[in-house]
Amino acid sequence: MTDKDDFPDCFGDLEKVFPMGPNGLRETPEHCFYHCPVKTKCLQQALATKDGIQIEEEVLERSTKAGGISFFERWSRKKQAHRRGLKMKK
Fold it and tell me: What is the distance between the alpha carbons of residues 49 and 31, in angstroms, rounded to a whole number?
């Protein structure tokens, strides 16, 4: 699968490849995780969308509240995500 036409219909669709799970967190479905040969590229594509950038910012917020990252690291990562979002608008 190298040609874009060869990708499955769900390729890069955030709600199909990284949907919200029953516990309120996003999860990769089992059929994607174990059986899809392009799962890494697919998830990268899905997370590179505007909605994916918003999800990344939400994860950063939770990490900060849980003490996983510092304020400055969160600020830096959010700034990077924001810049990627601005590039998408051009």
Answer: 22
